Input
Amino acid sequence: MSVNDTEHEPIRVPAIFQLGWFRWLPHAAMDIEDILHRFPDIPQAEILLAQQLLHARRLGITIDRDTAPEALAAELPEAPAWSPPTPDEDDPLTEEEVADHDRRVREYDELAERMGIGPVRTAAHTLDLMVRLGIVTVEGSDHDAKMRLASDPPLPTEVLPLSPEERAQEDHLRWTSRYGRLSQKVLRLFINEHDGGLRHTVLPTSLQRLAESTGADPEDVRHAVQVLIWEGDFTTRRQGAPVDVERMIPHQRFDLVVDPDLFHANRQSITVNRPIVRPDA
Output
């Protein structure tokens, strides 16, 4: 793994990604989140018109800039909740891509039924759903109601009617995503940055020392090390015997060990060149 850190504008990671909502919302939710991030406290009608304009542009529809907003809303096609897969000149759609899209919509219809609502097919349906789930808040009523992103949105597992298996999988994915970036900082301690190979396979350390090396909190480092262990090529040992990183105190010494065969089989080289603005979820 080679790493090149250069100066760029930070990448904003929306709460929909931070909290894992992108796995549980239709595609239109990302546009709605972006609109409300840029223009908080706007009425629902303006959000949906913006969605219509985005959808029309994606379809290649020419928009008359002299047309009044109300007329545009009536003339333009309604924005869908789900963006169907689109073919590319050099990369036509496969049957698998179409089937995967249809499968995801069917699965979401089943989830919507568990929530006691009908199928989510339009951007308007998606916005109503985001309000229902507490991701978007509403102030006021009727046409004057202002909408904004919730300052403290819930987790999917807190408000969705998920099965125990879905809940466990979502918790695992969110945990891995939350500490994944820090786990990569720990991983860098093993990497020769010139050729991307391993410079050692055993690192005598402690959670406190790892925290100092990565500029993080020892408890966050504990979770980051656990992510590396879950990924299969790292283990923790003390005096040659396996040790549970979850039970170690910050100053307790242990060996962080990587299996070189598994590492080279499962890891890909990456280049990091833009900082990411990502508060903890």
